Amino acid sequence: MSPRAAHPHPPDVRQHLLDAALRAFAAHGYEGATIKLIAAEAKVAPGLLYHYFANKEALLTALFERSGALVAEAFITVAGIADPRERLAELLRVSARIVRENEDFWRISYGVRFQGAVLAGLGAGIAAQSAAFHATFVLLLTELGRPDPVTEAWLLFASLDGLFQHYILAPDTYPLDAVVELLITRAGGGAAAETP
Amino acid sequence: MSPRAAHPHPPDVRQHLLDAALRAFAAHGYEGATIKLIAAEAKVAPGLLYHYFANKEALLTALFERSGALVAEAFITVAGIADPRERLAELLRVSARIVRENEDFWRISYGVRFQGAVLAGLGAGIAAQSAAFHATFVLLLTELGRPDPVTEAWLLFASLDGLFQHYILAPDTYPLDAVVELLITRAGGGAAAETP
DNA sequence: CTATTGATTGAACGTTCAATCAATGTCACC
DNA sequence: GGTGACATTGATTGAACGTTCAATCAATAG
Q1: For residues A78 and A98, is the Cβ–Cβ distance under 8 A?
Q2: Contact at 8 Å (CB) between B118 and A32?
Q3: Any idea which nucleotide's C1' is nearest the CA of A6?
Q4: Measured between alpha carbons, how far is B13 from B48 in angstroms, rounded to an integer?
Q5: Residue in B29, B168, B194 nearest the CB of A190
Q6: pLDDT digits (tens, 9 = 90+) for A63-80
Q7: How far apart (Å, rounded) are the C-alpha atoms in residues A187 and B190?
Q8: Which of the 8 DSSP states describes residue A173?
Q9: CB contact under 8 A, B163 and A162
Q10: Residues of chain B whose pLDDT is less than 70?
Q11: Is this structure's pTM higher than 0.85?
Q12: Interhelix angle for B149-169 vs A176-184, to 10°?
């Protein structure tokens, strides 16, 4: 039927180009990664990118969509845990795992966050994802019977986000797991380890 | 003595140009703020910027130096407080005040943080400031007799940083003071407000 | 074998930007 | 009131960017 591709290039070219863009954006930032550079990273001519994507920003948007799906999936899985205390703990652990396993993407995401005005389409998406995170935390903390779940959710979200950013800035040395576990104790436990 | 200026333009032109650059960078990002735009913001011809600064990046560096001095000064003041619990509380409150009062600068700072590779000179400075923050927290938490001051310092620093970023992203609606006070309770109190 | 298709190339285009520089304006001092 | 030194201008430069497009290529269909 359709005279499908059968060229010297990889099987799914679109994904291949996205992977190259991911690496280039992560290494040089969105503005710093030129189309030529992305094309070189993919071992492809610059023009080809415009066969699969409308423009440079569409590359970025596609990356965010791919990752958004990943996060949503993880959230649904965790939502099945009955005990709220354990659900909270797992939510934080799973988030950390996603960040660790998609380091390049999160580097881009954090790098692009404060240029919302520049990248109009993205600002809304990021804000929505943030709101979802906060709302989830509010529900969870309410379920745990916390006195001020809204403020606590702000703090929890900020802590987690700051944590991930610090990890992304120094992935080789940052004690991600230890800090996440401490955050879980603080947020879910209620007793902040006054200890012996 | 010094052949001071005496021209139609403002008294200290350098500071005036820096202020204009601050506003332009904050509004459009580092890459997005063109030399023309900064010059227009300062009501000055583009060429003049190169009389006071070597290039565009030097503008950014100067802004970081100006702010670094501000932070250092605040740290020294707070260091005089005897009671470590109160010192910690004041440190967080003062930091929040600095961020709130220099919103534009911190927007730039956070926006530029993940482009370390691009802006070579800055990466080191930011890293040093981060290290100083963490070290201060470690000392403080040690003084407070905490069991694992290093990990707790990482968490405290990440929480504070994440908090400030979330505030910068929504300064009009974010409950900065409430969350800071909650963080103080968590970090300094030891008891995480199990409450009535 | 020939026609048709869609993927792919890479040179070229128009625009934009940081940076330069010759020209002009303004003061300080004599 | 003339002179030298510096502040300031804004047109200009050259490089780099995202994007376009005519040409090429490999593969299938008839």
Answers
A1: no
A2: yes
A3: D27
A4: 10
A5: B194
A6: 999 999 989 999 999 999
A7: 13
A8: T
A9: yes
A10: 1-11, 116-119, 189-196
A11: yes
A12: 80
